[in-house]
Amino acid sequence: MNKIIVGLAALALAFAGGVASARSDIKDGNAMVKPEKNARYSIDGATMGKAELYGYIGDLRDTDHITGIVLKKGGDDEQRHIIATIAKTLGLKSYEQDGRELRELPQPETAPPAPAVDAAPATDSETGH
Q1: Tens of pLDDT, residues 87-129
Q2: CATH class of this structure's domain 23-103
Q3: CA 51 → CA 55, 67, 86, 88, 116, distances in Å?
Q4: What per-residue confidence (pLDDT) applies to 98?
Q5: Of residues 37, 72, 34, the one with CA closest to residue 53
Q6: What residue spans of the chain are helical by DSSP H?
């Protein structure tokens, strides 16, 4: 019986340690994102595309209250742009790791509003006449 209790306690500690390390890629309120090949990104042991990263970062913002995204060394211009765009959309700051320092990534300008679409004139069947 004691072996079972000790085993369950060890399992609980291992599980708690796994949960605590699941969000190990958050440092000083920033999500640390590693650039990967083929426009992919890695964070918390998972590799994902930009759409998945957007959702994951949004979740981190809401649950862990992150304030920024850091692109670790090695990203290309497109990856920098994607990180800055995700950050701007989510209301976060964006950085690139430069050695031990963080260099702020310029966020894209706000897009101009889409032009208004002219409504087509209503047909007799739509107006009931």
Answers
A1: 999 999 999 998 889 999 988 886 555 556 665 555 555 556 5
A2: alpha beta
A3: 7, 19, 9, 15, 27
A4: 87
A5: 34
A6: 2-21, 50-63, 77-90, 124-127
